[in-house]
Structures
1.
Amino acid sequence: MDPSNPPSIAARRAAAIARHLAGLSPHDAAAAGATVAVLEPSACLCYAPPESSEPAPAFSLLELRALLDGHHLRERDWAFRAMEESPLFCPRRCGGKVLVSPDYNEGKEGQREATMRRVGYLARRGVFRGWLTEPGPDAELRKLALLDCLGVYDHSLAIKVGVHFFLWGSTIKFLGTKRHHDKWLSDTENYVIKGCFSMTELGHGSNVRGIETVATYDSKTGEFVVNTPCESAQKYWIGGAANHATHTIVFAQLHINGRNEGVHAFVVQIRDENENVMPNIQIADCGHKIGLNGVDNGRIWFNNIRVPRENLLNLVADVLPDGQYVSMIDDPDQRFAAFLSPLTLGRVNIAVNAVYISKVAVAIAVRYALSRRAFSVTPDGPETLLLDYPSHQRRLLPLLAKACLMSSAGNFMKRMYVKRTPELNKAIHIYSSALKATLTWQNMTTLQECREACGGQGLKTENRIGIFKAEFDVQSTFEGDNNVLMQQVSKALHAEFLAAKRKKQPFKGLGLEHLNGPCPVIPDYLTSGTLRSSSFQV
């Protein structure tokens, strides 16, 4: 090479790329007599993280984090460190410690196996220790904090763990009795068995009362015969069923001597210890989805499967050996509501997970707006940061404020749930239903606005927001369709309103206390200050 005629920047970049594709290091290339091109950044392409040029914050970041996360900060840090220490979670191919979601170029089978490898690693690290066997509100809050961390990393991972512990495990714990706890809780916590939750059917989702799977009691053998009588009765979208689950909780109509006693929950083994599907059970894959392909959703048919009488989860109701039906709850509606109680915690988790994903998306979009510039006020002046434009502030800052408020709502709901009492069950159901719907809807609004605010960069898989949109779209549907949940909330609030008016008593709870005050006088001329006032109501 002629020293008086050095290669251009473009030529040096091309040489560096060629060396990279050939798998040569600069030392190897020099030893081979090749021209070693040092890749230097062009001055106009230099990038610095936005925080490197910003002044120190005027507030304590630790105090802000404590306010937003709310509880168990050390446990959260421990969980994140556990993930960062494993190549299963923290690929370093890009250089540095980069937490990214799974490789979305993989097929669904690859993503599913990656999810199970991560679950196995976390189990070995003791992340799930005590999740079902340690009692008390603090243990429950700790469990929810750790699940928050998993959800920030990967939605498929959080859902896979959530189905196993919060649907299968919690149903065993809260609808079962000692015989069920002794038999299944410890093995569930240690992943000796893998559970799933078979409620939804092809023909029935929100209308759980209408499910068609039947469990008929045979008093001669002391067994229940579980059967799928028609195609619309097949269990559908069952997370964990397609590949990994060994057991499931089947919700079915209980028939005794020709009488339908309503929906009850039964434990059924669907795979043996070698992961072979049990006889008279058929399982099919639900196929590729727009997101959450790390979760193996499946379909299940039961062909007159016989399960022991003891496999009925009998805290609420039981069947005696002679076929006599007994229950501590006489009202069929209240009994049915008790069987649906495991869904409450799932709704709490979904709502809180939506909050964290909103915070991640807003953080990405705001950081981008603090580094990307567009247009200049003067011909020769620097271009303006996106976040310095009032229009961009109006796009992102309300979302930031709402994410902070959503954090408070999520933490309130978690604390209310772990300190639940029978008297609070109705309020918890209403709050969890309302927050599940409103927070997940707001999450999808946030993701769309943040994706657009990042321009073309928002489309990159590595930048996560576009992937979040596909992964979290299901939030508005699973564990309660949002519109149906809001109808339930409206119905409950209206009933409370009418009851209080009829009794001429003040409103208590459910967020209706503000109606106890005098009706406000609405001014003839409304200003922005009036509308923003906390005392203003329509």
Note: The domain at 342-503 is CATH 1.20.140.10 (Butyryl-CoA Dehydrogenase, subunit A; domain 3).
2.
Amino acid sequence: ECAEDLADDGVVYAEVRFAPELLTAGGLSMSQAVEAVLDGFDTDRDIEVNALLCAMRQSDRGPEVADLVIAFRDDGVVGMDIAGPEDGFPASLFADPFATLRAAMCRYTIHAGEAAGVASIADALATCMPERLGHGVRIIEDIRVEGDTAEIGHVAAYVRDRQIPLEVCPSSNLQTGIADSIAEHPVTLLNDLGFAITINTDNRLVSGTSLSREMHLLVEEADWDLQDLHAATMNAIDGSFMSLDDKADLIVNVVQPAWEG
């Protein structure tokens, strides 16, 4: 159903997170849970859905999840993340599982800068070296704006200059109190300052949203235009965990014809 809903919304490629350890109450092992979800993602629609396996921050199963990422790397699992309470459970607690993934040449993203601030982002970057940041919008706390001038702090500069993608979820961020409205959401300033912004939904059901709705809200309430949306789409492709050849194919055969049409 997830794959079908995404396809109905016009999504052609998705990396969907879930925590295997939360899907074992019915007697499945974590490995069986991963197999079941991957089977569900297999659809005849014009969409490719891959999985990001999450370890819960408040548990100790990170090493097991990392092993699952490695085991299923050729079957639709493209990486790992950590989920759950960010405040009090820094990414550094998972430095060893992420090191295991690096040694195996596997990919990963880390939720940081949503419920906790710049220190959480710095901790993730320094100890785990993620390729992307889930949310990451509290990087704005490392930027001081006076009039037309923005003074960018060291952590923010590191993220921007390395073009580490920020997986921004505007509606979800309103629910968690990061901003009071889409118009006031820091994503627009971050975009204007040259950060590698991508637009995402977070939990579609909890936020009652879709990717097309998130983009529509940015256009209607934050004065984004097609160029902004195109840049965010290209950032998403570039930062995705698909192969370089698949990225090129997606751009040439799907994205560019759609934008030019």
Note: Residues 108-245 form a domain with the TIM Barrel fold (CATH 3.20.20.140).
3.
Amino acid sequence: MSFFRKLSRFFDNEHYKKNPVPQNLTKEQFTAINVGAINAEQTGYYCDSLTTGSDVDGIKENLADYYGIEDRESAVGTLQWLFGRGHRVFFDAIKDAASGKAGIINCDELEDDERERADEFLENLRGSIDELIEEKFLASREELALHSITAWDMGRFVLVTRCCFDAGYISEEEAWHCINSALAECRKFYSSWEELASDYVIGRAMWSGYGMTLIGIMTKAQNLLSDAESPWKRVQFGEAGK
């Protein structure tokens, strides 16, 4: 284990924050909320309710700064993009090149203004492969071609949905529709929290490259998978039901 990973674990204070007012979520709702568990651990949001438990003014500021969301129209547009396209279009374009299966990026589905960013994402991913393998989020470089980063986009989709609800940009009914749709989409690709965690981390590696932030995300994912108090230990990912 590297020095920086040890340092990340030392300062990591995850506690799976719970809403003090019981929400009586169904098992399916709880599972769906925790598609975004890694994001919730980053931000200190509740793991057991639709509302995040965070300050609304702070939520609005973060939505504006990080996602360009300032009202209902921009909220709906961003949520539609995250669910329908997101960063998956970039990963699908670069994964064969990153895995060594192909020599160049497949730009067929990219807009002209997205191609430069695809080059950046490819370098980020290539620079993270050794650490992804070392920490067992990836079996081999070649295996990248078999992955999806649906987990990365859907985790962010759940986070942004919850924030948009707290900000008053979307209704409770709309929020649950989005969050339940995220779970359904993930179940097309994953049968366990382990699989979801791996592809979330791979997506993050593509976006940010290797560094302390990625190490922190890996630690959060590993803790969610192993801690007895983790929300991921309360429900099986593929277990549909009430």
Note: Confidence is low (pLDDT under 50) at residues 1-11.
4.
Amino acid sequence: MSPSATSRQPLTEFLGGRTRAGDERSLLEVSDIVLRFEGVTAIDTVSFEVGPSELFAIIGPNGAGKTSIFNCLSGVYRPESGAITFAGESLIGRRPHAIAKLGIARTFQNIELFANLTVLDNLMLGRHQHIGYGPAAAMFYAGKARREESRHREVVERIIDFLDIENVRKAPVSMLPFGIQKRVELGRALAMAPRLLLLDEPVAGMNLEEREDMARFILDIKEELEIAIVLVEHDMGLVMDIADRVLAMDFGRQIAIGAPESIQQDREVIRAYLGEQHESRGGES
């Protein structure tokens, strides 16, 4: 069981979407982006926006362009045309580390942790972009360096508490169950103090209990920390339960966008994606 909201509250002193009063404009705006690879169109004129503290999901069959969108948002790919802005800043042409510094953190389908390091050390690595001193400063201003390191450690310890992984904080990641490793990866992304989280299939490979735990933590991040989330996920039950809005894609095209209820009833979505699962279950609803 995760800690109570009361015990988690201090984490908001260090993290959170930092939405300001009167600042209700879109946090992320994607306008008509196009991405091609050797003549193959991976993203075909896709547009959407994500508000502060919104949980926005992207769904579609394999090859629909979901991960390509994430790669454009995180600076791995550069769209051929279109615009992407985050908090008023253009992301086009920025490198991944520069985009991370703006306040965007990402998790991946495949876990990308340092297996031989402890949970604590992996999360501390998420604080690297907030470290304001180098080796020389640490040598000549040891007191300041220690105070800053202490503050980073406090942030990480509160994230560990938030994600209910205190009992494994000193364990090497390689020794942990898969579901806990995914939680550690989420914690490392939180350690970057993002305003926007990009979660790429966060429950892939998990059992039912692990999926339910992860869904709860994702909602807590949105509701308690007020961090916006863009979620790519194949688990339709999870998406429809927790997303505020959903973008459905097929062959790189945007085929529908709206509330989960409307997406579930959209004929083109049912044909392109939901229908595949429906038919594979023998017509069960």
Note: The CA atoms of residues 123 and 156 lie 6 Å apart.
